[in-house]
Amino acid sequence: MIYITGDTHGEAARFFEPKLPCGSWTKNDKLIVAGDFGCIFGLGARDEEKLDLLAGCPYEILFLDGNHECFPKIYSYPEENWCGGRVHRIRENIRHLMRGQVYEIDGTRIFTMGGGYSIDQMYRIPGRSWWAEEMPTEAEYEEGLRNLEKAGKSVDVIISHAAPERTMRYFRETGYFSHLFMQEALLWGYLEKVAQETEHRHYYFGHLHLDRELPDKRTALYYAVYCLDNGQRVL
Ligand SMILES: [Fe+2]
Question: What is the C-alpha to C-alpha distance for residues 54 and 80, in angstroms, rounded to an integer?
Fold first, then answer.
């Protein structure tokens, strides 16, 4: 089975959460993190220790990048083709799902687009706690559209770190946000276009640090865990 959760921010304990049904998970099960994995943060041995700990999980960990990641380090891992898309191989059971890819994982077709804008970047140090690669590039956007075209503009699930535009407007209109940080608007627009033009049964995203089931078959993820195969919330 494939499961999905939101930003883990380097908290290794999230992967060993006793309430997760992962006691019964095997190497055939997968947990996807919808960005802000945070376990590769340019901390050298501390990151390696954490990744070695996660390598002991009985299941596979697949993560999109968010905005709080050490991108040069993630990009230094070997790139491989896996399930029809490009990944960085971090450990035997840990893979980075790159931007603009379409994977077919255990029969489920998944489009991925990581990246996002850090609203707290003025408090962060470039190259130490903030990296310029946080927002997708034009080439990554284009690669995503090309891969969706090849997939016949049809997948089972769309996963991004940031939210699509209509969802951001919904949050603004319903008062959840008093204002929106427009630095990310291009990404919202791209994601909305993908959602509108691609047949899909569900859309999951992280980044906003809330768990909420939303209109248009969309779900915001933080600590919640859903099963992608049947859409049921398991935590
Ligand atoms: Fe986050």
Answer: 20
